[in-house]
Amino acid sequence: MADRKSTYDRVTDSILGMLDKGIIPWRKPWVGDSVALPLRATGTPYRGINVWTLGFTAMEQGFTSPVWATFKQIKKWGGSVQKGQKGSDAVYFDIKDYEVIDEATGKAEKKRSFFLRFHSVFNLDQTKYCELPASLEELVTQPKAEGAGTDDQCEALISDFRKIGPKVAHKGNSATYNPRADLCTMPSKASFESTSGYYSTLFHEYSHSTGHSSRLDRKEVGTETFGQGGYGKEELVAEFSASYLSALAGIDRETVKNSAAYIQHWRKAIEADSRLVVQAAASAQKASDFILGAEGTKDGDKPEPKAPKAKKPAKKRRRRKTTKKKTASKKPTTKKKKASAKPKTKKSGGGLAEGKIVKVEGLGDCVVIKHPDGGFGIRRIEG
Is the Cβ–Cβ distance between 40 and 54 less than 8 Å? Predict the structure, then answer.
């Protein structure tokens, strides 16, 4: 990424900007009656902090479409981004698996690291000429679920959790969760002005209860009081989770804590820890998933799926020519025939003398003759 700011800092700056405008980002900021949560190009709802950052952007810019997509996806739909429009950050966790050797045992231990990344997305209202897939078009235009915002709809969300969650006692005039007793205390339903007020409060306390040691085991649950670090983060987890569940139930959370002191408290805490909001939103997503009975992901939101890369044809390996050293071919050696030896004469007696009889090998008896030049020769004796 070219930007020197970390992804955590970018998200934190966005949240602080909302607080400066008097907006509580973990209260429902998204708009539109057909779909409650921001949607990805695949039709699945965004998760984690993206729900609030994209929702706030939609509210601030007046976007009515819940769909967000990357530049490439928009192009794939045959559309384009309108001139002058800027993208919004959608964050996700990049996962890296690695092994560490234990010095004591020598065994390899598997580890996993998470890196927060972001990419730019555009709301459908920022584009033109897009032809959405039929499945996504149907999802966007579907009518509001029947019974949304009623007791039945809210109860349907938490019906499974009621069987495994904490007990709920209706008494007093305050809502609390006691982790030691694993008990949620709620004022009676009649004391609330609306259905949404009762259930958004119950969702909040239920979200706290998911941090119990028998469930998701969040260390901040029940360890500190509000405003002292640990409980501050846990309170933020419950706020995010309750807002998410309220959106799914089709109810609006009642804004009862929009005081300047409340906003200033959170601004100070978030400014001091750039990771607080992202981590709290990720924990809230797991809490919501646990209450809904869905399998939550440990890595928060995930990046848009990438199209599989076309396999390149395998390169043909050139075999090296193993050339053997040419050994000079030996020419057939022909044994040279020894020249026939000149007839050897056995000297009988002293020297040669004309008329002397000598024996010559291969000729037999020969007679010595004298040439006119003074030299000697032999002649075979016939008969």
Answer: no
